[in-house]
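Appendix C: a fully annotated inverse folding record. The material below is reproduced so that readers can follow the format used throughout the book. The structure is listed first as tokens, followed by the designed sequence.
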């Protein structure tokens, strides 16, 4: 169970760190980030040794239990506020007023929990005071209070998630909302189990052993956390995948950009960075990829003027002799004359040619980057390298062959 607790703690911290930049940039995302941050802090004290250490450090028996329950109430309130705001933004105007929860109820609940907790008699340290002192009436009131609010919040969150998931929207969002609905449903079961076991224990009945009850409590508490975390993160998966692909294209296009911009440095918007520093920089990936494709196209445009008609014809023949046909041959021929024009530009033997329109261009950023990646593969291949060497040798030969 300790491994599970640590795993859930690591997942919650990873989500909190991942969401932090967006939460600080966008006000509407802060409340959900706050829920994950509160739960991540609480999970740091989910194991028994951490509970005993915290209680000993604070000097209050059962303080870790109060922290856990207050965190659950606070996180539930944050999730409820987030779902209510999101559902209200997509609901008809006539219904929006009914979807806004207040903040007074959770604050009053937390204040009452603190008062009731310190009214209880806890003579000895216990990992779970609720089961250690079932006869204390103040502790019974404390438990019923926080489980009532938590259960109501989970029920309301389930209703909002289910209603929102039935509206038109991206599949990832709808699936995520259904996972949240499932998690909050299990959260309701947790509160019912928690309250019923305390009431039954007060009557002197113990249908479950202490170990079984503790294990069931932890599972019913952890599973909703995982489901709600997965459900709230699922809509971000397509965005993360797209960002990952764009970062991959950005890194893959660096060699082509660097090789071309060395020949025509005027196309660079800024100073060239080390490829490792460029690859490890997570900021503005889409904008940087957009800029990189533009600069590569600018370099191609400049070198286009050094590609004479005879050079282009020789490139087409060179590709045909290699056995390429169709669109692949056209793209390969472009890579060959581009590599040859670049080498001629660097050596100072470039000849003035005739500007021609690009052979291919993408309709959007992703397709444009993919086309340039295809060009890059051929550009650095033996096929283009051999053609560039032959062209440079022809330009530097004493006989002065045609370009």
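Designed amino acids, in order:
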């Amino acid at each position: 169970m300790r491994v599970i607790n640590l795993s859930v703690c690591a997942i919650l911290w990873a989500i909190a760190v991942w969401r932090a930049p967006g939460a600080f940039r966008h006000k509407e995302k802060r409340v959900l980030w706050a829920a994950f941050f509160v739960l991540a802090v609480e999970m740091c004290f989910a194991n028994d040794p951490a509970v005993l250490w915290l209680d000993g450090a604070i000097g209050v028996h059962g303080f870790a239990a109060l922290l856990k329950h207050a965190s659950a109430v606070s996180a539930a309130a944050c999730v409820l506020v987030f779902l209510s705001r999101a559902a209200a933004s997509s609901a008809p105007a006539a219904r929006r007023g009914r979807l806004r929860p207040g903040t007074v109820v959770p604050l009053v609940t937390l204040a009452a929990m603190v008062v009731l907790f310190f009214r209880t008699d806890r003579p000895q340290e216990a990992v779970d005071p609720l089961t250690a002192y079932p006869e204390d009436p103040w502790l019974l009131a404390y438990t019923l209070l926080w489980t009532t609010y938590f259960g109501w919040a989970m029920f309301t969150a389930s209703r909002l998630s289910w209603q929102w998931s039935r509206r038109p929207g991206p599949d990832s969002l709808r699936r995520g909302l259904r996972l949240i609905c499932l998690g909050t449903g299990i959260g309701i079961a947790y509160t019912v189990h928690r309250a019923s076991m305390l009431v039954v224990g007060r009557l002197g009945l113990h249908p479950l052993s202490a170990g079984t009850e503790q294990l069931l409590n932890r599972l019913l508490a952890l599973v909703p956390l995982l489901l709600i975390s997965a459900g709230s993160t699922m809509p971000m998966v397509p965005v993360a995948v797209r960002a990952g692909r764009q970062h991959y294209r950005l890194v893959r296009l660096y060699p082509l950009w660097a090789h071309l911009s060395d020949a025509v440095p005027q196309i660079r918007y800024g100073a060239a960075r080390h490829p490792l520093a460029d690859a490890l920089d997570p900021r503005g990936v889409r904008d940087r990829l957009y800029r990189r494709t533009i600069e590569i196209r600018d370099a191609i445009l400049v070198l286009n003027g050094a590609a004479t008609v005879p050079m282009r014809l020789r490139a087409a023949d060179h590709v045909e002799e290699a056995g390429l046909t169709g669109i692949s041959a056209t793209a390969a021929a472009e890579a060959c004359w581009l590599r040859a024009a670049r080498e001629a530009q660097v050596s100072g033997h470039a000849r003035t040619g005739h500007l021609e329109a690009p052979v291919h261009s993408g309709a959007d950023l992703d397709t444009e980057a993919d086309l340039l990646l295809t060009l890059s593969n051929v550009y650095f291949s033996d096929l283009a390298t051999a053609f560039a060497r032959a062209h440079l040798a022809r330009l530097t030969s004493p006989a002065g062959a045609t370009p």
